[in-house]
Amino acid sequence: MKTLEKASCQGFSAAGTACGLKKNGKPDLGMIFCSVPASVAGVFTRNKVQAAPVLLDKKNISSGVCRAVVANSGCANCCTGKRGVDDAVETTRLASGNLGVDAENVLVASTGVIGKTLDVEKIRNAFPRLVDSLSPDGFGAFAQAIMTTDNVPKVSAVQAEFEGQTFNVVGAAKGAGMIRPDMATMLCFICTDIQANPNTLKRVLRPAVDASFNRITIDGDTSTNDTVLLMASGLSQVAANRCMDLFQQAVDKVCLDLAHMLVKDGEGVNKVVTIDIQGADSDQDARRIADVIAHSPLVKTAFFGEDANWGRLLAAAGRAGVPLDPYVVDIFFNEVQMVKDGMGLDMEAEAMATEVMKLPEFTVKIDLKMGKGQASVLTCDLSYDYVKINADYRS
Amino acid sequence: MKTLEKASCQGFSAAGTACGLKKNGKPDLGMIFCSVPASVAGVFTRNKVQAAPVLLDKKNISSGVCRAVVANSGCANCCTGKRGVDDAVETTRLASGNLGVDAENVLVASTGVIGKTLDVEKIRNAFPRLVDSLSPDGFGAFAQAIMTTDNVPKVSAVQAEFEGQTFNVVGAAKGAGMIRPDMATMLCFICTDIQANPNTLKRVLRPAVDASFNRITIDGDTSTNDTVLLMASGLSQVAANRCMDLFQQAVDKVCLDLAHMLVKDGEGVNKVVTIDIQGADSDQDARRIADVIAHSPLVKTAFFGEDANWGRLLAAAGRAGVPLDPYVVDIFFNEVQMVKDGMGLDMEAEAMATEVMKLPEFTVKIDLKMGKGQASVLTCDLSYDYVKINADYRS
C-alpha cells in the first residue's frame, strides 16, 4: 500500500469554485461526480439537531447508489426549517439537470454558520461552470471549496495492490472546530474504484470512522452537519470481498491521515497531542479517561503553555468516574517519565518533559497499572487563537 | 434575613497572613478558630485523586467536632504521597500546640499547584503571629489568604431572626479555576452560631451545596482539593431544629452568594451567564442540557465575543443525548426572543439579543416545549485571559 501524491480514482472527477456563499469570495462550492453509478455508504452526526442536507442524505442514501455529491461551505443549512430541506432538494435537482443523473442519486453536504438559509440561486448560477471544471485531478479544488476555518485543504490518497491489480482510495475532508469523538463539523468524502456493494462499504466505513474521526477532539463540540461518505465506482479490477483486510487497511489509512490533518489544522492549534492510556481495568475505562483528559481546558491550556503540569492530567483522570489508584500511576511525555507511582519526579525529569512539550507533536502516556485496558485519543492545545477565531467567527 | 456588611459570628475568630508559600509574598495561610467545640459537617471532592488534606479531614471530621481550620494557598499538597499526609497531620499538630486544642479537632485545606510538597516549616514559623492576629472581624483576611488566581476575596454573611433571637451565618470561599458541578478547586468555610449537631449540619449542607456550588461551572475541571465545611458554635440563642427552613435558607443564601462571586471572579471571566432550561421531559434532562451548554467552548467563546450565535446553543443542546425536537425550541436572551420553533427571528431580534449580550450578566433561556423539566446552571465566557492565566500559571 502506498501513499499517492496525486489523488485520483477511476470513475471519479471533482471540482470546486466560488459561487458567492462566502462573503470573502473564496471557493465555497464543490462537486464530486462518478461516471458510473457508485455504491455508497455513509455515517452521519448523532446530534439531535441535524441539518437539512443530513436529513435528505439519510433518505437518498438508502438506494445504495450515488452519482454525485454537492458540498458547500459558508452556510450550514441547519435550523432552517422546511425551507432548508426544500433548498437541499432543489440543489439535488439542479445537479440532476446539469449532470443528467437522477436527483435521488445526488447527495448534498453543507458547512458554515447555523441558522442562515441557503442561497440556492448562487448555486444554480455556478453549476454550469462547476460541472465544466470537473476533473480526475480536481480533489484538491474540491477540498478547498469545503473549507471553513481550515487553513489548508485536506486530501489523502492511497493505492493498494492485490494479486497484481491495484485499487485506489481517495478522501477529502474539512474541519476545523466542533470536532470531537462521535463526529464533528466534519465533512469527509472518500472515493474508491474497488468493486464493492453498499453493505460491504458500510462494514468497512464504521470501524474506519471509529478508529479515526471518533478518536479526535478539538473542542468537544459536535456538529449538526457531520457526514462521512464512502463511494465505490467498481472500475478497478479488484473485488473488495476478495481482499477485505487490505481494503479496510486502505480506508483506515485515508481516514487516519485525514483525522490527523484535521487536528493539526484545528482552530488555533499549535500542538497535536496523543493521549495514550494504558493499564486501565477495561478499554472502555481507558477511553473514558482519555476523553476527559483530551477535553480538559486546564490540560489543553497547559499544552499551549508548554507546561508539564502533570497534576492537571492526574486531576482530569481522577474525575473520569472510573476506578483509578492515584498512588500507582505513571506518566510519560514521549519517553520521558515525569510521574512514578503518583508522585512527580525531579527537576531534571521536568526539564526533559518540558523539552518534549516544545515539539509540535508528542504523546502523553498514562499507565494506570491496574489491568490491560487501553485507548488513545488525539487532541490539541487550547490557545488564544482558538478563542479569537470563535469569538469573532460571525463578525 | 438580612445581609451583613461586617461578617462575624459568635464564637469564631479568623486571621490570614503571608508565610512564604507563595513566591510573591502575598497572604497564603489562614485560620478559623472556635472558642468552643463546634459541630461540623463537610462535603469533599468526588475526584478519585484526592489531596492529603482531604484524606485527613475525612478522618478527623468523623468525630463531628471542630476547633480550628487551617487553610493554605500556594500549594495543594496533592499527589505528594505519604509525605503529604504526614505534612497535613503535622500542620494539625502545630495548630494544636499553638491553640491548645486536640490535633484531631483541627481540619486542614490546601489549594495551589498539584505535586509540590508542603513546606511545613514556613507554616510552623508563621503560626504564632497568625494565632495572635485571630479576630472576630478576621474573615476578610482569612478569605484573602486562601486566594489563588482569584482577584477578590469572597465573604458572605447573613443574619436571621427567629422568635426575637438572631443567629449568624458567615462564609468565606475561593475559586477560581477548576470549577464545575460536582465541586471544584473550591474551598468554602461556613461558620454559624446556631445550635446544631453534626447530623443537622449535614442535612442542611448537602442541599445547599447542590443548589449552589454544584450548579456553577467555569472550565469543567474538578479539583482534587474541593472542600466545603459548615461549623456551628451554638453560641446564639437559636436552636436549628426549631427553625430548619430558616436555617436552610440562611445557609443557601450564603452558598449562593459565594457561588455567584466565584463565577464572577472566575479566571478571565467577563460575562456571568445563567443557562435556564425549561420544558424538558424531566429535571434531569434539563440539567444535562444545561451542563453541556454551560461547558461548550463554542458557546463560551460566543459569549466572550458578544455574538448571539444561537446555532451553537442549539447544536450543544442537540448533543446532550436527551430527547429534543429542534423544530419547536424557543431561545431567549433575557426577555428578547431570538429563536422561535427552532428558527432564528429577524435582524431586529438579533440586534436586541446582541445588546443583551453586552451586559456583564444575562440569562439564556431555552424552552424545549416538551414537558415540565427545568434546570439552571451558572456559567461564564471563555476569554483570552482564561487561556493566558492557565498557560502561564506555573511560570
TrEMBL record, chains A, B:
InterPro entries: Arg_biosynth_ArgJ, ArgJ-like_dom_sf, ArgJ_beta_C. GO terms for molecular function: L-glutamate N-acetyltransferase activity; L-glutamate N-acetyltransferase activity, acting on acetyl-L-ornithine as donor. Coiled coil: none annotated. The keyword Transferase applies. It comes from the Bacteria. Keywords: Acyltransferase, Amino-acid biosynthesis, Arginine biosynthesis, Autocatalytic cleavage, Cytoplasm, Multifunctional enzyme, Transferase. It catalyses: N(2)-acetyl-L-ornithine + L-glutamate = N-acetyl-L-glutamate + L-ornithine; L-glutamate + acetyl-CoA = N-acetyl-L-glutamate + CoA + H(+). It is found in: Cytoplasm. It is an enzyme of class 2 (transferase). The record marks T111, G112 as: Involved in the stabilization of negative charge on the oxyanion by the formation of the oxyanion hole. Its EC number is 2.3.1.35, 2.3.1.1. Signal peptide: none annotated. Substrate binds at T148, K174, T185, E267, N390, S395. One of its GO terms (cellular component) is cytoplasm. PROSITE patterns: PROKAR_LIPOPROTEIN. Belongs to the ArgJ family. PANTHER family: ARGININE BIOSYNTHESIS BIFUNCTIONAL PROTEIN ARGJ, ARGININE BIOSYNTHESIS BIFUNCTIONAL PROTEIN ARGJ, MITOCHONDRIAL. This is Arginine biosynthesis bifunctional protein ArgJ. It comes from Desulfatibacillum aliphaticivorans.
